[in-house]
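Subgroup meeting minutes
Present: P.N., E.W., G.H.
Scribe: E.W.

1. P.N. recapped why we're keeping a running log of single-chain structure predictions: easier to compare across weeks, and new members can see raw inputs and outputs side by side.
2. G.H. added today's entry (207 aa).
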Amino acid sequence: MSVFSGMSRPMKAAGVALIGVAIVAAVIGGITALGGGGGSNEAGPSGTPTQPGSSSAPLSTSSSASSPAPSTSANPSSPTPPAPSTPPSGQPTSAPPGQPGGDQQASNKWVTVRVFNNSTIKGLADRAAEDFRGSGWNVNEVSNYSQGIIPTTTAFYRPGTDEEAAAKQLAAEFGIKAEPRFEGIQSASPGVIVIVTKEYQAGHKGS
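Output recorded in log:
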């Protein structure tokens, strides 16, 4: 016996329509259930949707995925500023030889000076030596020179040595001459050799 027995034709038609709608709804629901089995819309542990293939555990608060932490290391491509240059060890910092200055003049006075009397005035070499020492010169010998006659008081030096600058400074300071060593004293010991003659005035200094 049919479920539509005893119903009028309009009611039968309505019943058939309702059954058709129910069947269509059931089919759509089944398709939806089969297509959504990947769990893409399910909530993760923190209540947010989880993406396929991602871990369900919450991210650590120390993760740097959002923005990298600023690097504190120096840029390796940055040029390193050059260190201040310094003079080589042992190099003097005062004015170089030949330039005027108190330091340079004082440095010449370490050169050994020997004073010889070439006059008949007794003790003239001693007085000259005292004058030189009083001005800071390094006089270490006083004696006589009797191997010849020297025209005027002169400071003799070996060219190209420290004696040259020292002899010229001494000569300018005391108003005497400065000349290279002559043949008779070429082989004498190193140092400036001052031979004083009778015109030397003890205690007198040049301008």
